[in-house]
Amino acid sequence: MFFFEKKNQKTFIHGVRRRRLRDSAPKVFCFFFSKKKFFLSSFTLIRFLKTAIWCLLALPLARSARLGAVSQTDVYVWQRHWSPALALAVGADAGLFQNWHVLAAEISPDNLAFRTQANWAYLSAGGHVVVPVIRIDGRIDATRSLALIAVIRREVAALPEGMRGRLEIDHDSATARLADYAGFLRLLRQTLPVEKLSVTALPTWLHAASFSAVADAADLLILQVHAIDDPRLGVFDKIRAATWVTLMARRTTRPFLVSLPAYGARVVVGSGGRVVAVSGEMPALDGPGGREVAASPQDVADFIDGVQRDPPEALRGFVWFRLPTGDDRRAWSDATLRAVVRREVLHPRVKIVTRPGRLPGLTLLFVTNDGDIDANLPQSVQLPAGCERADGVGAYRRDGAVLLRDASGGIGPHSATIAGWMRCTKDDETHAP
Hints:
Helix content: 25-40%
Strand content: 25-35%
Radius of gyration: 27 Å
Number of helices: 9
Structural class: alpha/beta
Number of strands: 25
Shape: globular
């Protein structure tokens, strides 16, 4: 920082090169200020120029150090069953992630614990740094806290000895109940011998006064910026996510990660457009009446670029939900996740193709992706002139001379999905704008 001080009609220039803030990332402040005209001696001018040059050279270094502070890349292993495909995925991506947040148990509203089949021995043998996660359903209040903590202590004691030092609590508390949740977390810290407690946080909490108490009870917060509360927005909206990260940085100085989506889901929508059911990795809702939504790899990559350009002080990195496997057809492909994590340029190759149907005169419309990564479905498909009889299928519906995508959705690498059908009086060409 440069500032000017008037003493006996002389102007003195003081330079402060740098200081270290809480996260040890060097910050450089270059501030020039003078209320009146002043004259510099040659000695003072030389010193001034030297310090200014140092400032200009140090700014890129300071920025690089700050970017390094948000380089942490973690992943969630949320599968309840340990399949061969999951073991293969864990082994293949061992060098891609720093910490593995593994679902250990789910606790029902009546305090029944359901343990997953996580292969702790396999994770330990592979040298993975594991953060066990306990998911808590139902409301948490003073009457439930003691019994719930007893269940959590039992589940932590069942973990391998080397994995009891860290714990993550995942609970979707109602915003109005945050004060009770904060009290529960404080009591948990007093009775549970863990070195580091992580807590997931919802964007709706950020406007609540009690959020500060929740943040103070945790060592690390994980802001979840993906959800399916509006099918029109899909799983992830990069503008809303950026707003939430900014608000998070204003509300707390606690270190935090941002949880990012690498998946899609099937959504059942009721009257008024309200979401009534969501199916992720489980095929329970794969019947009529649902629609597919998915996080766009390009949108998530754009969001990361935006955050990295001016990262908040407390942001440490990102954690991906969830680890893709060969038998999880709604997760991104492994190649897509790797490309986004490594900040590679995404090159999907999407086009519209027509194929003859089984009935005479019937033509089927398909969206194909010949690229190596997942791609967004086109927003619309133009119908050729003369095709009066046509309709959309799956994610598409007809709107005049086009098929409009009715929900966000994606298409995997080297795959195809049907978009609609048509009967035409003459041959023409369809295209995606």
